[in-house]
Amino acid sequence: MSISEKTAEEAPPAAPAPGEPIKAKQRLGDRIFSGTALGAGLIILIVLAAVALFLIVQSIPAFEADTTDNHMLRGQSFWSYVWPLIFGTVWSSLIALIVAAPIAIGIALFISHYAPRRLAAVLGYIIDLLAAVPSVVFGLWGGLVFAPMLVGLFAWLNENLGWIPLFSGQVSPTGRTILTASLVLAVMIIPIMTAISREVFLQTPKLHEEAALALGATRWEMVRMAVLPFARGGMVSAAMLGLGRALGETMAVTMVLSASGAITFELLTSTNPTPIPANIALRFPEAHDSGVNTLIATGLILFIVTFAVNAFARWIVARRAEFSGAN
């Protein structure tokens, strides 16, 4: 072998041309990890598609069947049947969101910017534990303890603020009203909203906060000028995720609410709207034949509403991450 041939064999491989991507060597562990991650992502899509397909297929008979033979519809159209349920679902969830949002944001601000480190850690643990409490426990507490406690408050609201349509009507003697159910829902969604808001507040650039304080701003002025504008998208997404949780809650509302299926804005009476999850839980034991398909069709409506709310929340998060300058 000549010296030139030996030198050519020992020379390192030529460097890639400018602009040509460098391909990393694929190891066995890398291929296993990437395949596992891809499989996990596909499983989520497959499960979601399977649930949607099941709801759609099982809901078709509810739209095509004769309403006179459907013991759920009792001669009325499906949309006439489901509209009061949609109203009850959205109405109770909106009330819960209105009550929970300022409380959750206040707790998150206190934990992230006001509380001492040890107290903030303890409060964070408590919030996380509250999120792990089963909904049936909230239902028992709401129906047996919380509802009787609110009867006196409801009577006072009706007596002093009865001129407002929300507080008019005959007060329920049991306290099992749409307002009670909404307050229980508010307690249930506060932990998730607080956790998300807290993480967003902690991501505020320290330079922004220090610049505001260096210019003479007070703690609240710093929060108002630096923290809240930065976290606006995160707070909205937390509210939307909490709303999605409230829309799909079943057991707590079923155990607390004295449902009647009416469309009314009165909050203190025994005539209350019925949310879709509670209606499915209450009517499913007696459903048969096309009635089962009708309940599944209402579940499809709830699936679409909840999916739309969560998709809207994810869109807000992505839009905020793109335009906030955080990245």
Automatic annotation (TrEMBL):
Q: Which domain of life is it from?
A: Bacteria
PROSITE patterns associated with the record: ABC_TM1
List locations, semicolon-separated: Cell membrane
Q: What GO molecular functions are on record for this protein?
A: phosphate transmembrane transporter activity
List each copy of the ABC transmembrane type-1 domain by range. 86-313
Region span, Disordered: 1-22
Keywords from UniProt, A to Z, are:
Cell membrane, Membrane, Phosphate transport, Transmembrane, Transmembrane helix, Transport
Which InterPro entries did the record assign?
MetI-like (IPR000515), MetI-like_sf (IPR035906), Phosphate_PstC (IPR011864), Phosphate_Transport_Permease (IPR051124)
Membrane association type: Multi-pass membrane protein
Positions of transmembrane segments = 32-61, 81-111, 123-156, 176-196, 295-317
Q: Name one GO cellular component term.
A: plasma membrane
Please give the family membership noted in the entry: Belongs to the binding-protein-dependent transport system permease family. CysTW subfamily.
Q: Which PANTHER family match?
A: PHOSPHATE TRANSPORT SYSTEM PERMEASE PROTEIN PST, PHOSPHATE TRANSPORT SYSTEM PERMEASE PROTEIN PSTC
| Role, per record | Part of the binding-protein-dependent transport system for phosphate; probably responsible for the translocation of the substrate across the membrane.
Which named protein is this? Phosphate transport system permease protein
The species this protein belongs to is Microbacterium barkeri
